[in-house]
Amino acid sequence: MSVHEAKDLSELKAIAAKNKAILVDFHATWCGPCKSVGPH
After folding, report:
1. Would you give the distance in Å from CA 2 to the centre of its chain?
2. pLDDT per residue over 5-40, tens digit each?
3. Which residue ranges does the record assign to the Thioredoxin domain (predicted)?
4. Which of 31, 32, 35, 38 is catalytic?
């Protein structure tokens, strides 16, 4: 398994086109649950 970071929708589409399955993890600096599981 490899990790890729998509900076925009076109990069995400390119990654998705090359792989059978992808996992997308969304994060926001203002999100309480994101803050609790993010790096401290």
Report:
1. 12
2. 899 999 999 999 998 999 988 888 898 888 888 766
3. 13-39
4. 31
